[in-house]
Amino acid sequence: MRILVTGGAGFIGSHTVDLLLQKAYTVRILDNLTPPVHVDGQLPTYVPREVEFIHGDVRDRGAWERALDGIDAVFHFAAYQDYLTDFSKFFHVNTVGTALLYEIIVEKKLPIQKIVVASSQATYGEGKYQCANDGVQYPPLRLVEQLMARDWEPRCPVCREPMQPLVTDETRVTPHNQYAMSKYTQEMLALNFGQRYGIPSVALRFSIVQGPRQSFRNAYSGVLRIFTTRLLSDHAPVCYEDGRQLRDYVSVHDVARANVLVMQDARANYQSFNVGGGRAVTVKDYARLIAQKLGKAIEPAIPGEFRFGDTRHIVSDISKLGALGWKPRVTLDAIVEEYIAWARAQPDVRDYYADAEREMKSRGTIRET
């Protein structure tokens, strides 16, 4: 079976490529090697040389046509992710690129047996909460005025009282930012076009994926990467708001297993699944765990700043994917230890946070209370 992995030279894509090769699949990669994730347009050394590589952009019809020739299944991971305000680029890359994939398959009647699309936990926005007065709620984006007052917790849309966060299942999405909206429209395209034209398709909503090969230069996301590089430089990791935000973190190795599982299992067809770590951790506690693993007696800095558009709490319910036989295997301690060992071995490891912080503040993404 011949499999195409878009974004296969990147973080999640490359680990999925490794697992596919272990399972004796033939793999082709389509990737445009865009900075800052990639350096000087060079193919990373971790990409196995037995993999066929096509340099191309998912917005380019010709690149798709070359990449899809002779392919049986597609993992579509190529995406644009950032906190910048170039809103249209998110939709050109993520949404239109996915539409072009299905357009070509339908137009040319290509015999594609499965498509797995990478979506995101970000599609949930604030996710699911319990109000003591009004039951289950899905609150909207917190207003700037609330955040400027350091009133961090989402309030019930009905009675305005604080609520308790719940694990969020796949039934309802409320995307709040440009990345989340582009990923959800990507999902809708995949599942609707897939079902309409008989192309088995699956969307996976990844939680915060952690592990080796996360580029140091893409410092706008990846809390393990940012905190580790800060601490390696003896700088305090910076927590936004009060550091008590709840998140769930999942190993890239567990994500790769989920990717291959839904490709192989027809029960997953035409559905969305959460892929998460199955445990809630505060951002502040995560920073302290990383410092402990590094042997650094450095407490996280909490300057009272916030990142506009961030979710307060989000933890995914992974029981739906669990019903197919998947569960996360890698512990949070093991995730951190593996990443630290990998980061220390990289020649370009340094603290890139200051540059990213300046850029985000200049664009109003990070704001001071």
What would you note in describing this structure?
Strands 3-2-1-4-5-9-13 form a seven-stranded parallel beta sheet, sandwiched between helices. It starts with a strand and ends with a strand. Helix content is 35%, strand content 17%. The radius of gyration is 20 Å and the shape is globular. The chain has two domains: 2-128 and 167-368, 3-Layer(aba) Sandwich (Rossmann fold), CATH 3.40.50; 129-165, no CATH class. With 369 residues, it is α/β, with parallel strands linked by helices.
Using the CA coordinates, give the radius of gyration: 20 Å
Report the total helices.
11
How many β-strands, per DSSP? 16
Q: What string gives the helices and strands in order?
A: EHEEHEHEEEHEHEEHEEHEEHEHHHE
* Fourth CATH level, the homologous superfamily of the largest domain: NAD(P)-binding Rossmann-like Domain
Distance between the termini: 55 Å
Count the domains: 2
The spatial strand order of the largest sheet comes to: 3-2-1-4-5-9-13
Q: Could you outline the blueprint of secondary structure elements for this entry?
A:
Blueprint: E1 2-6, H1 11-22, E2 26-31, E3 52-55, H2 61-68, E4 73-76, H3 87-108, E5 114-120, E6 129-131, E7 135-137, H4 144-148, E8 164-165, H5 178-197, E9 201-206, E10 208-210, H6 223-232, E11 246-247, E12 249-251, H7 252-264, E13 271-275, E14 281-282, H8 283-294, E15 305-307, H9 319-322, H10 332-344, H11 353-362, E16 366-368
Parallel strand pairs: 1-2, 1-4, 2-3, 4-5, 5-9, 9-13, 10-12
Antiparallel strand pairs: 6-7, 6-8, 11-14, 15-16
Helix pairs in contact: 1-7, 2-3, 3-5, 6-8, 6-10, 8-10
